[in-house]
Amino acid sequence: MQLKKSLLLGLAMVFVLMGCGSDEEVTEFNKPALYWYKRIADSISSQNMDKADEYYISLKSEHMRSPLMPTAIMMLAHAHMQNEEYLLANYYFDEYNKRYADEERREYMEFMKLKASFLGVKDVYKDQKLIMDSINTAKRYLLRYPGSEYRPLVNSLLVRLHMAQYLLNENIAALYDRTDKPKAAKIYRDKNKNSVVEMADITPPEKGIIGKIFD
Questions:
Q1: Which residues cross the membrane (predicted)?
Q2: Which of 47, 52, 129, 204 has the fewest C-beta atoms lying within 10 Å of its C-beta?
């Protein structure tokens, strides 16, 4: 997880690792698409996601138009989700969206990207921008897909994000109260005046306000 704090770092490591393997691995090229596909699947099964990413690069560079590409991308996206590597999961969902998704599949891909962003919120203090971005993304999704079958989940996700933002503002305001900075505290409490939730609506879960609504 440490190597994948950001998408750029994660992808950079793919190329670094491609150059640091054994001689046998370095000389692997010009293989059939099925060869790379099987390597991806085997690496996912053995929980070696760095290798799976490497083999995807080989499949993509040698067989861009292979019918195995869409399935390989989805395997990698869901595997990274399972490993809680949400930035890389979003990369693969984007890859699929750009290349293969029709309108119906795009609705699903946009939902999965939103889910990955939501689950990527680990610390409300460190992930303030991600919370705000996820709120805006959820609102756009509901406008774009008003009849989506995922609408109830997106609504639940959005409410939890609003709760997280509300509690964050209140906690920051309380901190300013303790340090005798009432003006600064008022700024953060004012942010909550237009919130769609109120403090009385919020019961913080034991494992954090985000919770696990997708279990």
A1: none
A2: 129
Q: Which amino acid is at 49?
A: M
Mind listing the pLDDT tens digit for each residue in 69-116? 999 999 999 999 999 999 999 999 999 999 998 888 899 999 999 999
Q: Retrieve residue 177's tokens.
A: 């109260």
At which residue do the structure tokens 């979003």 appear? 90
Q: Structural domain tally of the chain?
A: 2
**This prediction's pTM:** 0.74
Question: Are 126 and 25 found together in one domain?
Answer: no
Q: What is the DSSP string of 107-118?
A: HHHHHHHHHHHH
Range of the domain at 155: 103-215
In this structure, the answer to whether residues 62 and 162 fall within a common structural domain is no
Q: Are 68 and 37 in contact (CB under 8 A)?
A: yes
Question: In angstroms, rounded to a whole number, what is the distance separating the alpha carbons of residues 87 and 116?
Answer: 8
Query: In this structure, are 27 and 86 located in the same domain?
Result: yes
